[in-house]
Amino acid sequence: MALILDVARFKYPPHWVPLPLLWEAMNTTDDATGLLRGFMLISRHTAAPSLLYTVSCRDESWKSMAKYCMEDVPDLLKDESVDNVPALLSRLVKSLPANAGNLIKWVIEVRRQEEGGSGLSKEEEERLILKEMILQQVRDTELFRLVRELQFTKQPCCSCSYSSDDDSFTRTAASVCCQGAALLTGNLSSKDGFCCRETCFKCVQVDGDGPKTVVTGTAVSGVNEQSVDMLLPISTLETSVCNSNSSNEVVKYPSRTDILTVLLLALHPSTWVGIKDERLKAEFQSLISTDILHDDLKREILHLRRQLHYVRSCKEEEYGDPVPQSH
């Protein structure tokens, strides 16, 4: 049986009908359209729209980045002397505004420091697993490999890798701890008044999934002190930073290379139509195509693309549909 709840309740009160009868009622042709009637399944989306990355317009950097995306990049693509992907990427990277990293930020979760806490809740564990999965999907792309080689050509190998390109992580952790402290004390306007006194790594055990990394920080504002935990994605295949003596210990928080890769993926596909060399255009478009991405990363990229669309709209520039229609 199925419960029918008609919007015209005053005429059609709620009532139960057998499923076969309901199916027969839907399996008829609508005279106005000539199409069969049917049904729609609606369910709550279980994943957040942005798990690992988001566009931030908290400072003025978005204006210079909007100009970069809308004006500078198209001008760079007109250069006919650029005839290969590494050269094109090099030109794009070198032209990035100094504050480019302030536009796309990785989503960081903070919580009050748990006294003697040694584990994660089920919800926290699931979110970290999803973050790790998306982060790994970014690093599995050919575009990430090329961007990384471009930025770190002097490194002899990649075995000592991902954290080495993030000397600013300590500052990031301190900043996030201050913001988290302001949030947890209920006064966001006071975030600039907090000073992070210390940050340190620790590990928490997750049943069945090994250790996870948490950055613990203590932020102070006047006489107020707030200790917070910042949850970080870390590869389950690599040694934890809390264990000790291995030289292969790598915390896989998103790096500048990750964020730059994601920015290039999130730019609207029409951005690249100005490439003069047709062979180069085809090769580059294949690198940034969302069709080759895993579904989770694809959703993340399309969400960022929508956000970038609204940022550009703030510049009162006409821009096409932020998300290409699937066929």
TrEMBL record:
Coiled coil: none annotated. GO terms for biological process: cellular detoxification of cadmium ion; detoxification of copper ion; phytochelatin biosynthetic process. PROSITE patterns: PCS (PS51443). Keywords: Acyltransferase, Cadmium, Metal-binding, Transferase. Its EC number is 2.3.2.15. It is an enzyme of class 2 (transferase). Pfam families: Phytochelatin, Phytochelatin_C. One of its GO terms (molecular function) is glutathione gamma-glutamylcysteinyltransferase activity. Residues 1-47 form the Peptidase C83 domain. This is glutathione gamma-glutamylcysteinyltransferase.
